[in-house]
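Figure 2 data, in text form.
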Amino acid sequence: MRRGPFGLLLLLAAGRAAAQEPAPLFQPEQQYSFKFKVDALSREEWTSSIFDAPGVFHNDDRWRLQGRPRLEIGINKLTLGFGLDLNYSQDKNDQPPTQTIIRDNYRSRDARVDLAFARWQIASGARLEGGRFEMPVALTEMLWDRDLRPQGGALTLEAHDEGAARGWA
């Protein structure tokens, strides 16, 4: 039995029809992320025999608890974040007679919004943030207290070891 060009043509047409189905024009894959983070701090200080005046000594001790829950929801290149700062302490640093000006960067018994931001990853090395967010520049504790949150906007550009260009941010 001889198979001529017609059989070969059928075989090629069948293979070609399945392989060259048109791909959908645009089907973006939605990427979702959900993150729940918690930072906690427990601190206790005590000092014995603090000298006040000749022959007058006192003991001083205090404790503090802090919790910072945070929620981040990401949809493709957009991330929305919200976080709280919860403090509970033995001392009451916001009530007279101790002081009327709070010098501790926190109220001893308080709940407040710590983070509320939107972040857009523009490209692989560019990010735009707005709201109340973590400091985008890595600074030491001598320059910026990491518990303080800037408010406003930030455009962050970064690159990593990509050939001749070394990392910069």
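Caption note: The two ends are 73 Å apart (CA to CA).
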